[in-house]
Amino acid sequence: MNLLLNIGPIFRALLQQKFSAILVVIQVAITMAIITNGVAITWDRYVHIERESGIDEPNLFFLTSSGFSQDFNPRASIEQDLALIRGTDGVIDALQANSFPLSDSGNWYEIQTSPESSAQLIPAASYKFDEHGINTFGLTLLAGENFNQQDTLWLEEADSQWPSHVLLSRATAAALFGDQQWQKAVGKTIYVNHNTPIIVKGIVEQLYAPWVDWAHVEQTIISPARVTHNSARYVIRTQPGRRDEIMQTLTATLAKMNTQRVIRKVKSIQQAKDEIYAADIATVSILLIVIIVLAFVTAMGVAGLASFNINKRRQQIGIRRALGASKRQILHHFMLENALLCAMGVLLGSIVTLGLNVFLVSQYALVPLPLYYLPLGIVSLFLISQLAVIKPAYRAMGVSPAMATRSN
Amino acid sequence: MLVMKNIGKVFTTDVVQTHALREFNLNVSEGDFVAVTGTSGSGKTTFLNVAGLLETFDSGQYTLDGENIQGLNDKQRSQLRNEKIGFIFQSFNLIPDLNLFDNVDVPLRYRGFNAAERKSRIIQNLERVGLGKRIKHYPAQLSGGQQQRVAIARALAGTPRFLLADEPTGNLDSDMANSVMTLLQEINQSGTTIIMVTHDQALAKQAQRQIIVRDGKVCDASETAAHIQTQAEITPSV
C-alpha cells in the first residue's frame, strides 16, 4: 500500500481531533522558532569567538613592567628587558607594544588616501611595534617589506609625531584602495589626522584591532615606534609548548634584574581571550542548554501526546488490525499522522521563526537569520518529532486485533 | 471450508489457567449461516477471535478456505483476515473520526485496491445497506441500526468469503435488529458464509444451523437439539 495515499483520511481524521492536533502544531512551531533563532545566534557567537585574530595566539603572552623609583629610566629598562627576553632560550621574539589584539585597549585613527576633506575616512586601530612586530605576532607579510631598525622611533607618551612609514592590514588596504587594488597600497602615501602623510611600506594578511566587538575589527595600521613610559608592556612569543614555563621563569628573571620596577599582569593571550569572550561563552553555553532542553521537552511533549492518543485509540487500533492492517501498517499510520502534524508545525514554525528574527533584529540588533537556517530547522524539528513518536507507535503495533471484540 | 479440529486455547495468568476452548471441533461449509450460542463465558467470543484470526490457538488444527492457519506469521494472518473475512461487531466498531466513506475504505486501503476500485466498492456497498446518500456523515450522526449497516457495508466491501458477526444486534432495538437480520440473510443468500455469535435464541433460530458452545466445547447433536427445544419453550420469538 502506498503510504502517501493515506494522507487524505488521516488528515480528515485529524480535523476531527482539532485540539490535540493544534497543540502539537503550536508546540512544534514555537520550538522551531526558538531553536532556529537560538542556533543562529549561538553559531554567530561561536564564529565570533573562534575567529582568528591573525596572531599566534597559543604561543604568546604578555607582561607589564612598572617602574616606581624616581631613578627609573624607562627607555634603558625597555632596551635591557628586550635584550634579555629576546636572548632567552625558547623565546622566538618579543617587543614592547602600546596595544595588541585581544588587549581590549588602544587607539584608533581615521586615515584617508588624500588630504582633501572630501576623501573617505577609514577607521583603523593603531599599533606601535618595532621591526620585531611581524615575527613576534607571527604575522604574514603579503606585500612590501617589514620595517628596519632605522624606521623605529622612540616616542614620548604625549608625542603626536608619526613615523614616515606604516604597515597596513590587508583589510585596511582594501578599505582604502578597493578589494581588487589592495596590493597597490604599497609605496602609496596615506594621511592620518587628515593631513599627516605616511608611506605604506607593507601589507600584512590579518591583524585584528584590540577590541573584539569593534565594527572595523579587521582594520589596523602599524607604525614603527616604541613609547617610553614607566609602564611598558612586552609581548613575547615562545616556541610551541613552552609558553607557560617561560612565563614563570622570565617573570622571575625580569623581577630580579631590576628592582626599581615590578612585573605584573603576566597573562597569556589565551587567558586574555577567554576573559574577553567570557560573556559570549556564557551566552553560547546557556543558549545551547536552552536549545537542548527545549528540543528534549518538545520531543517528550510530542511523545506524550502520541502516547495519549494511542492509549485513547487502542480499540480503534484493534479494529484496524481486525480489518487487515499489519503491524507495519499500524506503525506507518502513526508515523504518517505525526509527520502530517509536524509538517503543519514546521510550516507555521517557518513564519514564526522569521517573525521572531525580525523582532530580535529590530530590538537587539542581532544579525538577520540566514535563510538556509529555515530548511535546517525544518529538518531538525521533523526528525525530533518523528524520533519522539517511534516508541509510542511501536506500542501501537503491539495492540492485538482481538482488542476489536473487547468492550469499550 | 472452515474446519476446526480439536482446537485448544488457554489463557494463563500468574495465578490461574483458563481453558477457553478445548477440543473444539467445527465444520462450516460454503454458504452456511451458522449461529453460535452459549452462555456468558462459554467460549463463544474466543471461538470468534480464533476463527477470525484475531487470536492464535494453542493446539489443534484450523483450516480456512483450504489454508492451514497454523504457522502463518502476523503479516500473513493480517492479509488472510483482510481478504477472506468480514467482521461485524456488537458495538459496530466504526472509527468515529472518519466519515462513512472513509470507514468503509479502511479495509480496502489495506487490501491495496486502487482509488477507482475502492470508490466503486464503497458506494456500491453503502447503497446496498441503504446509506448511499450519507457517505459524508460521521458515525455519531447515525442511529445504532444505521451504524451497524455501515459496519456491514465495510465488512462486505472487500467481498469476503466469510462474515463473522459478534452479537450483531446486541446493541439494537428489536426493529433495527430485525432489519439487520434481514440484511444478513440477504447477504447469506447471495453466497456469503456467515458465522454469527449470539446469545439470542430467537436470532439463532433464523440461522440455517445452530451450534451451542459450553465450557469451550461444541455440544454434540443431541445436546444441541435438547437445548434448542428448552430454549424454544422459555424464549418467545422476536
TrEMBL record, chain A:
Its main location: membrane. Keywords: Cell membrane, Membrane, Transmembrane, Transmembrane helix. It is found in: Cell membrane. InterPro entries: ABC3_permease_C, Macrolide_Exporter_MacB. GO terms for molecular function: transmembrane transporter activity. The chain crosses the membrane at residues 21-43, 286-310, 331-360, 372-390. Residues 289-400 form the ABC3 transporter permease C-terminal domain. The keyword Cell membrane applies. GO terms for cellular component: plasma membrane. The keyword Ion transport does not apply. It is a multi-pass membrane protein. PANTHER family: ABC TRANSPORTER PERMEASE YTRF (PTHR30572:SF4), MEMBRANE COMPONENT OF TRANSPORTER-RELATED (PTHR30572). Belongs to the ABC-4 integral membrane protein family. This is ABC3 transporter permease C-terminal domain-containing protein.
UniProtKB/TrEMBL annotation, chain B:
GO terms for molecular function: ATP binding; ATP hydrolysis activity; transmembrane transporter activity. Signal peptide: none annotated. Residues 2-238 form the ABC transporter domain. InterPro entries: AAA+_ATPase, ABC_transporter-like_ATP-bd, ABC_transporter-like_CS, ABC_transpr_LolD-like, MacB-like_ATP-bd, P-loop_NTPase. GO terms for cellular component: plasma membrane; transmembrane transporter complex. The keyword ATP-binding applies. The keyword Nucleotide-binding applies. SUPFAM superfamilies: P-loop containing nucleoside triphosphate hydrolases. It holds the Pfam family ABC_tran. Keywords: ATP-binding, Nucleotide-binding, Transport. SMART domains: AAA. PANTHER family: ABC TRANSPORTER ATP-BINDING PROTEIN YTRE (PTHR24220:SF648), IMPORT ATP-BINDING PROTEIN (PTHR24220). Belongs to the ABC transporter superfamily. Macrolide exporter (TC 3.A.1.122) family. This is ABC transporter related.
